[in-house]
Design a protein that fits this description.
Keywords: Hydrolase
CATH superfamily of the largest domain: HAD superfamily/HAD-like
Number of domains: 2
Strand content: 25-35%
CATH architecture of the largest domain: 3-Layer(aba) Sandwich
Organism: Salinispirillum sp. LH 10-3-1
Structural class: alpha/beta
GO molecular function: magnesium ion binding; phosphatase activity
Shape: globular
Distance between the termini: 17 Å
Radius of gyration: 18 Å
Protein name: HAD family hydrolase
Largest sheet: 6 strands, mixed
Number of strands: 14
Oligomer: single chain
InterPro entries: HAD-like_sf, HAD-SF_hydro_IIB, HAD_sf
CATH class of the largest domain: Alpha Beta
Length: about 270
Amino acid sequence: MELIVFDLDGTLLNAQQRISPYTEETLRLLGERHIAYTVATGRTLHASKACLEGHNFLLPHVYKNGVVIWDPQLSGYTHHTLLTPEEINAVLKSFALHPVTPFIFTVEDDDVHAVYHPPVRSASCKHFLHELSDNRGLPLLPLSALPDNARITNISALGDGEAIKAIGDELQAYEHLVAYFGEGLYNAGAYWMDIHHSAASKGGAVELLKRELGFERIICFGDGDNDASMFALADESYAPENAIDEIKAVATAVIGHHDQDGIARFLRQRFEL
């Protein structure tokens, strides 16, 4: 029994951050054939809702690069990998040296996300603030209001490439932290960053789903360095044409571009849909 796992941005979604009609029909055909599929993304649950609703993603979802697993049947998180206060302090000290605002994501008692942040320090950070508020509907609170016992899943940022890379280099000194970063798909000239505990990864979360749900094989699709752990455990792994070279190099094959329904077109051939 196989489980297909999709990354979202740069993979299953098009340039408008949506599932195209062709891909939507392909997912429907997979469902008719009882071929199981789910997502493993760097996004939060809230940032994914608009593009996943109505597409029958019924199995547990992997969010924030494996930090949390959400079960839509239970309407709740089943697994968390959280950052410690010491790790948070190390990250905040690094950000304080650069003109980039850290946005601290928490899981509240009701399984709803909240975001805490210090004063915004650049135009890119302001853009990210508005995206969180306007498009994702997340509560935005001052860093001073962060509870001492907060359950912190990750820290994200958007900023100048040089500053983001410098923060990433500094955080390499901490063995229990992982910092992914790269040029923004939807914000030209800006770089994104996501920091979480090293115990969390897409690969680890997908391995957990494979074991708990009883699947025998994993087929995955992804385009970025945060997909590498998932590619390493998969029986088949496919990178769209737009993927970074490092992911293309370890993929079973390179397929069509994400903005040209590359994943859906491959699936129709692979499964004769």
